[in-house]
Amino acid sequence: MEHISHITGKLKHKIENAESPIEWILYSELVRLKIDCYLQYQLKGIRVDIAIPSVKLTIECDGKDYHQDKLRDAARDRAVNAQGWSVRRYSGSKIFWDAKGVALEIAKDFGLLPDESIKNEAEHLSWMEPVIFPFHQSNVDLLNEIEDEKEF
User: Fold this and answer.
1) How far apart are CA 40 and CA 38, in angstroms?
2) What is the number of alpha carbons within 13 Å of residue 138 lying toward its C-beta?
3) Does the pLDDT at position 146 exceed 90?
4) Nearest to 24 by CA among 36, 42, 12
5) Rounded to 5 degrees, what are φ and ψ at 127?
6) d(CA 28, CA 120)
7) CA dihedral over 29, 5, 137, 142, signed as positive or negative
8) pLDDT value of position 35
9) pLDDT tens digits, residue range 21-64?
């Protein structure tokens, strides 16, 4: 239960920093794995969706707008890399349908897997539990955005 109170406390204090539901969904899964991460993290001249400073990783949660300006995002990635950070990009639909898998992939790839008891507890928690997003955008709008993304 100590792990659950850690999750509740961290999420409660950071909810207002998320700019989109997909950021919040992935951030929530990373926190459930006890990964020290930050929403809307500021690097030199660039704000990223999620950052894990311990491994110098930035994570971009790309909704349908990403598909409209790939050149801009590529330039941002180069600027982040120039500061010694790595960039991972995940589509909104990937995060929406498999946030737990994305979080576990990141944890595994960057050596951030928690101890076995926390890992087992995190795997039993479902991101599909009812979540009230702190945004004006409704869940229906989010699903429409994900459906629009599939067209690309």
Assistant:
1) 7
2) 3
3) no
4) 12
5) -70, -10
6) 16
7) positive
8) 93
9) 899 999 999 998 989 999 999 999 999 999 999 999 999 999 87
